[in-house]
Every structure is written in C-alpha cells, then in structure tokens.
Amino acid sequence: MAEPCSGGQVHLRQEGAVAVITLDNPPVNSSTDAVRRGILAALGEIDVQRATAVVLTGAGQHLMAGADLHELESEPTEPTLPQVTAALAGFPLPVIAVVKGHTLGGGLELALACDVRLATPSATLGLPEVSVGVIPGAGGTQRLPRAVGLPKALEMIVSGKPIGTVEASEVGLVDELLVATEEAAQQAEILAYASRYRGGKRPLAEREVAPVDESTLQALVKRLLARSRGLPAAAVAVEVVMSAGKSSFAEAVAKERAHFLALRGSEPARALRYLFFAERAQPFTPTQAVEPRSLKRVSVFGAGTMGSGIALCVLQAGYTVDLLELNAAALEAGVKRIADELEGNIRRGRMTAERRDEMLARLRPTQEIQAVVGTDLVIEAIIEDLDVKRALFADLAGLVGEETLLATNTSYLDIDRIAEGVAHPERVLGLHFFSPAQRMALLEVVRCRTTSEQTLSAAITFSRRLKKKAIVVANSWGFVGNRLYAAYRRQCEFMLEEGASPERIDAALEAYGLAMGPFKVADMSGLDIAWKMRQQTMATRHLRRYVGIPDLICEAGRLGRKTGKGYYRYGEGKGPVSDPEVAAIIDWYRQEQGIEARTFSNEEIQQRALLALINEALLLLGEGVCQRPEDIDIALVHGYGFPRWRGGPVFIARQLGNERLTAALEWLAEVSGKGHERGDASLVSIDTLRG
Fold first, then answer.
1. Is residue 3 one of the residues assigned to a domain?
2. Domain closes at, from 432, 459, 476
3. Confidence bin at 37 (pLDDT 50/70/90)
4. Which of 32, 105, 113, 415 could bond 89 through an S-S bridge, CB–CB 3.0 to 4.6 Å?
5. Which CATH number do you get for residue 385?
6. Do 148 and 44 fall into the same domain?
7. Given its phi and psi angles, is residue 424 left (phi above 0), alpha (psi -120 to 50 degrees) or beta?
8. Which residues are catalytic, by number?
9. Could you give the number of structural domains in the chain?
10. Whole-angstrom Cα distance, residue 291 to residue 677?
11. Where does residue 401 fall: left (phi above 0), alpha (psi -120 to 50 degrees), or beta otherwise?
12. CA nearest 240: which of 344, 139, 121?
C-alpha cells in the first residue's frame, strides 16, 4: 500500500493499479471548498499511465451526506460542485464511487458523475435538496433520470426522500451491492472489483432518457406537488427534471444551475435552513453540569388513544413499557390499538413480523398499579381532571423510588398543582405529546417551579431517543402549542363572524400551505372539547370579544366527524362537504348581532391568521414561557402542520422588521376588538436570527 499523496480533507493513495480518493471531512464528509479543491487536486495527481481505475470513497461511515448548509448563506466560490462532477465525468480513467452511509445531495451527485456505483448494504441514497428550499445543482436533475428513469427520478427529487441500497439496485442507481460488512474485508472487495474492472467510461450524460407516457408522468407530478403543499422548490424541480432528454445535457444542466442559484437566496430556502439549524440546537442547557438519570423502563398510566399512542412511541424507541389501566376493557382496547398499528406497519412494508413480535414482548399490560415499582419514568395519560391526576400522583409517589421521574401528559392543567404534596417534587414535569403520539414529532417538555435541571436533562435525552422535536416550556395555560393554536382559531372565528365562511377560511389557509384549515381540524378533533372549555370561562366572557357561532353549531348537535356533521357534513367514506344548515346558523347569528357580512380575500385571511400567531408568540416570549424564540416555530411546524418552507411566525416576524411589524400588530389589535392584548415587536429582533 502506498502512502497517501495528499492531505487535508481529501487523501489520495495508490493501491497497485487503482488510485483511491478518500474524502475525510468528519463527521459526514460534507461538501466544502476544501473538499472540492481536494478532489480536483487528487484527480490532477493521478498518474493515468500507471492507474487503470479510480475509486472515490469516504472515510468513516459516509461517502458524503450533502453540502455544508452554512455555505448557502454566502455567494458560491470556486471550485463549485458542478466543476467537480464535470471533472469526475470527464476524467480519462473510469471512476468507481463507493456509496455508503448517507450518500445524499451533493454526495449522490458525485456518485452519479462516476462511471460505476458500488454500494454497502446499509447505505441510503437521495437528493433531498427540496427539503432545504433548493434543487440539485450539480447535474443531479439530469443524471438521475438517465439512471433510474423519469418517474423514479421525479419521485426522489420532488419528495426529497432517500431510498435504500436494495431499491437502488433494483432501479439501476447502483451497479453492484457489496457483500462484506467489516471494513478491511469491504476495502479488499472494493479494490478487487476496481482491479478487474474493464468496462471503460460509462458517463450517464451520454445515456438516453427512457420515454414515458405523458399522462402517466402528469398524474405523478400532480400527486407529488400536492404533497409538497406549495413548496416553491418542488415545482421548480418538476420543471427541471421534466426537461431531461428534451434538450442537450449541457443546456439542461445550465438551466438546473441557474434555478439552483435563484432558489438558494429565496425566503423559503432561508426559512428551511433556519429551521434546520434551530432543530439541531440544544433545546435546553443546564446552568451547571448534571448527570441525567438513565431510563430503561417506562410506565404509561392510561390506555386510551393518547396513552396507547405514547406507549407505542416508547416501545418503538426500544424501551420496556408497562401499560397500566384499571379498567379491563379499556386496557384490552389499548393493547389492540397498539397491535393494530404495528400490523398496519407490516402491511405497508415498514416493519417485519419479527420486529413487531419483539416490540410486543416488551409491552407489559396490567391493571395493577403496583406494577410501577422499579420503573424509571411514569407518564400519566388519564382524563383531564385535576383532582384525579393529583390523587394518582400521590399514589405513584408512594410506590416508586425517589428518583423515578413523574410526568403528566396534560394539555391545559396546572402541573404545579399536580406536583403539590408529592415527595421529591423536583422529579415532576410535563411531557405533552401530540396525537397521534407515535407519529407526531413535537414534544413539549414542561418545567414546573420545582422541576430540577437533572430531570429536564433526562427528559431531553429521552425525547432524542424517541426521535421527537422537543421544546422546553414553562408551566402555563396551553403551554406553547395549544395557546398559539387557540389564538389562531379565535382570529379565524372573528373572520367567520365578520362574513367569511368556514370553507373560505379553510381554503385560504390551505392555499397558504397549512395541512388543514382550522374548521376542518375542529371537526376532526371534535367540537365538544372546545365547547366544554368555553363553558368554563362563561364568568369572564364579557371581558373580551366572544364569537357565539361555535356554541350554536354544537347546540345543533353538530360535534364534528364523530357525529357525521360539524362545520361540514360527512358521509360514508367521504371528506368534508358544505352544509347549507351551517350557513343558515351563521347567517342567523350575524342578523341577531347586527353584523353585515363582508367579503374577504385570501390575502386578508392569511394575514390576520398569521398575525394572530405572531402576536401570541410575542406574548409567550414576553411572559418567558419559551426557552428560545425558535421553539415557537418548531412547535407550529411539527405539531400543527404549519408549512415548513414558511419558517414559522417568529421567522416571518423577523423578516418584516420592527417598524412594519409594529404597524401590522396595531392593525390586528384594531380588527380584533375588545380584550385583545398586543405583543412587543422588539422581542424578535432580526439580529437573533439563526442559520
């Protein structure tokens, strides 16, 4: 083995007749100026008379997991990635890429520029650029269709979702799957393949794009764009990928690059990068070093929809889980709910039967409260009744060890009241999951007056293992997510009162990019829940503007999907349908209140709903409910379907600037009426923007 001929972040060595270029930029070999310069320098040092082939690989687990996103904040510098891919494609010797670990974005574009792709068994391949607001910019939109065909290329690029090596082999993205898994044996296998390779240059740029029926392609495009919920980069990606084969390769990659450069500085791209960095920042930093408690066994109390969802979520993370429920029928239903969900995962190809059986073996359903003895964490998910929860926590504290964490999943109740009288209250906290818990990424970690930093640190470690996006919040009504959503829904009800229909409001906000409009969400959740909460505030209702339309809808027996009618009507297997009865109820209410209905534009509906979120975010920040301003955007994106490419209300507020934001908040206060509290625009100063 020859000594490496170059240093830095790229190494070149000669193995007999094979030149090996190794990317070495830990932890994921991301593309940087230094890496790109290193690849070109290594290619320049290869003796093409001595070597017969070149291997491009990565040190550690990955070939290259994409670009360093910090580079996208500045103007591109040379050498650019397209210059590197062009050099690989035009190199006189065949270049063999070793696809391993996360070979994504620019990493896959490097591999596509090579002549042969070998892949390790556990590698993932993808072009996820749309997820950060751009498109592939180094030939990926043109080489991938030539490797796997237009339909698969569209699916991979527009969705941004990676695929595994088995599928990659089936669709022609990789040429051979490596057998060896141990590093030394794998390197020997790669070198043996490269030494015997005699296939010559096989540039994808010279391949024809396989023809596909146009109607089939258009149907696929329609589905992919619908799932993107208005993400601008998705539509651009479709346009550029569809141009493959319609013009020369050189013209097409020039078009790709122009679109990439135009998108990289766009607000959606900046919003997505902002969230990327915000999500990877520490959600909580203790004031002094603490050793979080190691959690091995978790007990979930309550086997209803939420409790069984939490139990499943915790099982998926590899924990042993006690599922406690005093009612035998409810316990049986909860276990069945978990089993049915796992069975569905098997049908969808997301899980093996063996994996299901292993998970169910770690589930311990019981009606005996004494089963919590010896557990490390108890998560309570019973009915929203303060007295009942207080009694349960008192019982639990007498059964578990003094270091066992006690968490409540309450959505609105005062956790300080729940913790009163509990021995060692420093171990009490809130873990507010969102339904369905096994799918929703957001987790609010709620800090009480007595919660210790060690407890919070343990909760954050737990959340990471659950693969949740955790935010640390103070104990306050509605915490962060539900309080934001309440302000948003209230503003939508104001517009409903003033003349907009439920359909009009829902359509405008879905056009903005929300997954579902507020009145469809209300029907899905059940209108009676909010109705009961409103009834509890009757004594103070006169202090602020109150819209009575939701009460009238409920009094008419329209409680949402579960009753077949709410703001919409629901038939067998059908989605929401407009119902004249709802329009009549709203019209009657307006007449009774002397309100003359007016028309609303999409823009006004969107602006008022968004400003309501921004204003409530400012109030939360002013009250110290959030640890970080970015937590508000994380909560809305991961808990409430806010369009990721919009960034979130804090991000948007920062783009407005203090003067414009102040004026907008004054207008919101004017249209919102009595009881409106205005937030302080200075709390989201632009100079704190991350990423």
1. no
2. 476
3. very high
4. 113
5. 3.40.50.720
6. yes
7. left
8. 67, 106, 109, 129
9. 3
10. 41
11. beta
12. 139
- 550 and 470 share one domain: no
Least confident of 71-75, 122-126, 135-139, 405-409: 71-75
Q: In CATH, what number is assigned to the domain containing residue 626?
A: 1.10.1040.50
Domain that holds residue 27: 10-265
Is residue 592 helix, strand or coil?
helix
647/667 same-domain check? yes
Q: Are residues 467 and 493 in the same domain?
A: no
Q: What Cα–Cα distance (Å) separates residue 92 from each residue in 40, 46, 226, 445, 562?
A: 14, 11, 44, 57, 67
Q: Does residue 5 surpass a pLDDT of 80?
A: no
Instruction: Give dist(CA 55, CA 490) in Å, integer.
Output: 61
Using DSSP, state whether 170 is helix, strand or coil: helix
State the CATH number of the domain containing residue 191. Answer: 3.90.226.10
Largest Cα–Cα separation, the chain:
91
Which letter does DSSP use for residue 562 in this model? G
Q: What is the pLDDT of residue 538?
A: 83
**Contact by Cβ (8 Å): 139, 115:** no
DSSP state of 121: T
* Token digits of residue 65: 């997991």
**270 in a domain, yes or no?**
no
Token look-up 């669709």 returns 171
**Contacts for 73-82 with beta carbons within 8 Å, 24 or more apart?**
73/273, 73/691, 76/261, 77/33, 79/33, 79/36, 79/37, 79/40, 80/36, 80/138, 81/31, 81/36, 81/106, 81/109, 81/110, 81/137, 81/138, 82/137, 82/138, 82/139, 82/253, 82/257
pLDDT tens by residue, 277-322: 999 999 988 898 888 788 999 999 999 999 999 999 999 999 999 9
Sign of CA dihedral 12, 14, 15, 20: positive
- In this predicted model, what pLDDT tens digit does every residue of 595-640 receive, in sequence order? 999 999 999 999 999 999 999 999 999 999 998 999 999 999 999 9
Residue type at 683?
A: L
Which of 461, 476, 491 marks a domain boundary?
A: 476
CA atoms of 582 and 600, how far apart (whole Å): 18
- Residue 145 near residue 209, CB atoms below 8 Å: yes
Query: Do 420 and 390 meet the contact criterion of CB atoms below 8 Å apart?
Result: yes
379 shares a domain with 306? yes
Give pLDDT tens digits for 641-684: 999 999 999 999 999 999 999 999 999 999 999 999 999 999 98
User: Does the model's pTM come out above 0.85?
Assistant: yes
Asked which of 87-91, 299-303, 573-577 is least confident by mean pLDDT, the reply is 573-577
Would you place residue 688 in the very low, low, confident or very high pLDDT band (cuts 50, 70, 90)?
very low
Give yes or no: residues 99 and 199 share one domain.
yes
pLDDT at 674: 94
The region, left, alpha or beta by phi > 0 then psi within -120 to 50, assigned to residue 133 is: left
